[in-house]
Specification:
This protein is mainly beta and about 425 residues long. The protein has one domain: Outer membrane protein transport protein (OMPP1/FadL/TodX) (Porin, Beta Barrel). Helix content is about 5%, strand content about 55%. It contains three helices and 21 strands. It has a 14-stranded antiparallel β-barrel. A hairpin with a 2-residue loop joins β20 and β21. The longest helix is centred in the N-terminal third of the chain and has 14 residues.
């Protein structure tokens, strides 16, 4: 198997690998594709302001309970206890079209997995200046199921990454113009993956490596600020720190011609990147507001990954891989309209740059440039409840791949590579 990234292989406790190269090959099969499973941060959170503006209103969110996550400084605009609950359904179309398939096989059909993502936000005023918030969101994740006959099965057959963040936060009003906020997220992550092993040299069918129940709880602090610089304009900024992810899971190796330890434990480490997001909200008139945002996400720090096999034949084995990921940038714009009768509409678009070049992209997470188009509708009369529905169409780029795995080259691109987010929310107010 060959990879374009830099690979460093070392054995812990100064031991050497005496097992034949097949074992090392199995380790690389496990480690190399999994290194890409960091996912991409999701901006579709909570209210119609978020889902409907492609996330461009997140950092200037003020007066809606999902500010507990998007920018805790915005909680100071909430004067009553509020609870917001939401549900989003992800409907993906992920279809690979191969142009090279040295090991044969099919293209895997629609490999995207339908998913439902709930969310919860709570904000309570503590006094005139302080607000307490609590949120539960899915900040990143995804998955593919290409099947065991996929042309790239020696890179990945099936992969799932899921994360849930529970985040307490505080907001403080410095004066009528400036507020700050801070919080910390406890992010529970679970990762699973199946990969085939090429045994054609032994005239034998494929073997399989499985990573099961690899889990961790990581900590990610965040801080925010909002400044109302004019009667019509608001500026916001949010910083989320890096989160160290150290997964502990089970490794299973099945149907190998040469005997190896069939079961083992596996440690996987990567860093979810830090990010800085800024945004502006400008009230155009009594009904319409313009939102804009931009961010920088430090995906280059995710590039280096460590994989420790704890029960290798000659002792614990460490594999370090550099995936050659790079930082990304996002730009978004949205329009929001609120009618005197309480009807709320929102529209938005955003663009993200790619975290990896075509030369280094792998099929397990074929990340590319992204384009979002969003719309939402809701109703909020300022009473005890509000509701909204919305949708975002996320195009994930062509995802061109040219990869060699298990000694077999495959290449192609995703002729369909998009996700439709459909969501709804309900918000309740309970007084102070």
């Amino acid at each position: 198997m060959t990879y374009r990234g830099r690979i460093e292989l070392s054995v812990l406790r100064n031991k050497t690998v005496s097992r034949p190269s097949l074992f090392v090959a199995v380790i690389l099969v496990v480690a190399a594709p999994a290194a890409n499973a960091g996912g991409i941060y999701l901006s579709e959170i909570g209210s119609p302001n978020s889902l409907g503006t492609a996330g461009s209103a997140n950092v200037t969110n003020r007066g809606i309970a999902d500010a507990a996550w998007t920018n805790p400084a915005g909680m100071t605009g909430i004067d009553e206890t509020e609870v917001l609950t939401g549900l989003q359904v992800l409907l993906p179309q992920t279809e690979f079209e191969s142009t090279v398939a040295e090991a044969g096989g099919g293209d895997g059909g629609n490999a995207g997995a339908i998913a439902a993502i709930p969310s919860f936000f709570y904000v309570k005023p503590l006094n005139d200046d302080w607000r307490f918030g609590l949120s539960m969101v899915a900040p990143l994740g995804g998955g593919f199921d290409f099947g065991d006959d996929f042309v790239g099965r020696y890179a990945v057959e099936e992969i799932t990454l899921q994360a849930v963040a529970i985040s307490p936060s505080l907001g403080y009003r410095i004066n009528d113009k400036v507020s700050v906020g801070f919080g910390v997220s406890a992010i529970y992550t679970i990762f699973e993956m199946d990969i085939a092993i090429n045994q054609s040299t032994f005239a034998a069918p494929d073997a399989q490596v499985s990573i099961d129940d690899a889990t961790d709880v990581a900590v990610q602090p965040f801080v925010g600020l909002q400044w109302q610089y004019s009667d019509r304009g608001t500026f916001g900024i949010v910083y989320r720190a890096e989160a160290d992810v150290d997964l502990d899971g089970d490794l299973a190796i099945n149907d190998l011609v040469l005997p190896l330890t069939p079961q083992s434990s596996l440690d996987i480490s990567w860093d979810n990147p830090q990010l800085i997001e800024i945004g502006f909200r400008h009230k155009l008139n009594d009904d319409w507001a313009l939102t804009m945002n931009a961010d920088w996400e430090d995906w280059s720090t995710f590039s280096a990954n460590d994989f420790a096999i704890n029960d290798a034949p000659t002792g614990p084995l460490l594999v370090r891989i550099d995936r050659n990921w790079k930082d990304t940038y996002k730009f978004g714009v949205g329009l929001m309209n609120k009618r005197p009768n309480g009807a709320v509409m929102a529209f938005g678009a955003s663009y993200d740059t790619s975290p990896v070049s075509s030369a280094d992209r792998t099929v397990d997470l074929p990340s590319d440039e992204q384009l979002r188009l969003s719309a939402a509708y809701g109703h909020d009369t300022g009473g005890r409840s509000a509701w909204g529905i919305g949708a975002t169409l996320l195009w994930l780029g062509n995802g061109k791949v040219d990869q060699t795995a298990g000694g077999a080259r495959f290449a192609g691109e995703f002729d369909r590579n998009w996700i439709l987010f459909v969501g709804g929310m309900y918000q309740s107010r309970f007084g102070k």
